[in-house]
Structure formats: structure tokens, C-alpha cells
Write a structure and sequence with these properties.
Length: 209
């Protein structure tokens, strides 16, 4: 039996609306943890993952204040697939463990349910941390438009980022619930209200995949 409260994994591609959706749920008092924040926390100075990265790449991978030079590391893993895999082997288990701790505190708390918001829910083994998955889905053209506008990149760059992520169909095939974010923010808020009602009465939810 699943322990209560439920934890819902919220995922989607770049600029699909994950943060906007999390903020909409927060208006109902729903707590969330953002996997991107945790990914930054686990490579902060003093963290074992940062020591491992420094041992592999040398002190040049650190900035003067001892923090990680993210741009240098990004350049390395962009150019070398094996280094990307090595980095993931160091970071992903630690991110998962830290997320697990945060979610355990939600489960013990007095909340109706909690959210794990993560762009890599399916790609980095985080699915096992949640009870069901809500996929935020947008048509690719709108996703590219929203990425370009928010991040100040041109359309070709936005297209390349989207192309490097999990294909839309594959993400959708793993969804338990879908929020189609192709309308205005009111449309999004209405769908969140509907999901909130459902997540508060988990007995009535359709089974997970
Ligand atoms: P993610 O967290 O998935 O990267 P965001 O929540 O940051 O995505 O949304 C990406 C951008 O699209 C933001 O600028 C956000 O304000 C905008 N956005 C999200 N949903 C909508 C919507 N329904 N209507 C208009 N703009 C939206």
C-alpha cells in the first residue's frame, strides 16, 4: 500500500510550464521540491560530489571562491559523452537521495499531498520516488516560442534544446495524468484546480502505469 500523503511527480520539457504549474498548486497550500535546486545543492562547496568532480577534473574546475565552474563543466560534458555519464553517475544518486529525504518530510507532514518538480523525472531514476506522474504537455511550436521568449535564445537554439530532450510521445506514454498547457494561464489554473480536487481524494484516481 502506498503511504500517504501522495507524492506527485511533475515533469515536462523545457518551458512546458512546470514552475508555473507548481506555483498554481502552491496556492492550494501544496508544498513542492524542485529537482534543479537540489542538483545545485549537492555540488555546493563542502559536498562530497564537488570533491569527486575536483579529483577528476582538477582545481581548474573550481572558481576562485571554491564553487563549481558550471560553464567549464558544461563544456566538458557537452564535448564528451563518457564524461557526461561519469558526472551523472556521481550526481544522480545523490540528487535522488536528497530528494528522498525532502519527500519523506512531506509524507510525514500535515499536507494533502506534495510535488516533486523535475525536468528529468523519467531520465534519472526519480520516478521511483513518486506515486504518480503529471506530465505538462505543450505542442512543440509553442514550447519553442516560450523557450525563446523566456530564455532570450533564438528559435534555432530553442529547437535544438527541445530536440535533445526526451521525445514528447515517450514522455506522454509514461504519464498518469496530463496537463495540456496550450491555453492561457487561466486555462492552466482551471486544470490545476481540477487535479487538486482529484489528488485530495486519491481513492478515486485511476490506477498508475
Ligand atoms: P518550465 O518550468 O517547465 O521550464 P515555466 O513554468 O518557466 O516552464 O514556463 C515557461 C514560460 O512560459 C514562462 O515564461 C511562463 O511564464 C510561460 N507560460 C507558462 N504557461 C503559460 C501559459 N499557459 N500561458 C502563457 N505563458 C505561459
Amino acid at each position: 500500500m502506498t503511504s500517504r500523503p501522495l507524492i506527485i511527480g511533475v515533469t515536462g520539457g523545457i518551458a512546458s510550464g512546470k514552475s508555473t504549474v507548481a506555483r498554481a498548486f502552491a496556492r492550494y497550500g501544496i508544498p513542492w521540491v524542485d529537482a534543479d535546486d537540489i542538483a545545485r545543492d549537492i555540488v555546493a562547496p563542502g559536498e562530497p560530489a564537488l570533491d569527486e568532480i575536483r579529483r577528476r577534473h582538477g582545481a581548474d574546475i573550481l572558481l576562485e571562491d571554491g564553487s563549481l565552474d558550471r560553464r567549464a563543466l558544461r563544456d566538458i560534458i557537452f564535448a564528451d559523452e563518457a564524461e557526461r555519464r561519469w558526472l551523472e553517475s556521481v550526481t544522480h544518486p545523490r540528487i535522488r537521495a536528497r530528494l528522498g529525504e525532502r519527500l519523506a518530510s512531506f509524507r510525514q507532514g500535515d499536507v494533502p499531498y506534495g510535488l516533486l518538480v523535475s525536468p528529468l523525472l523519467f531520465e534519472s531514476g526519480q520516478r521511483e520516488l513518486v506515486d504518480r506522474c503529471l506530465v505538462i504537455d505543450v505542442p512543440e511550436s509553442l514550447q519553442i516560442e516560450r523557450t525563446a521568449r523566456r530564455d532570450g535564445v533564438d528559435e534555432a537554439q530553442a529547437r535544438a534544446i527541445v530536440a535533445a530532450q526526451m521525445p514528447r510521445d515517450e514522455r506522454l506514454s509514461r504519464a498518469d495524468d496530463i496537463l495540456t498547457n496550450d491555453g492561457n494561464e487561466q486555462h492552466l489554473a482551471d486544470r490545476v484546480a481540477e487535479l487538486d480536487r482529484q489528488y485530495r481524494t486519491p481513492g478515486g484516481l485511476p490506477p498508475t502505469r
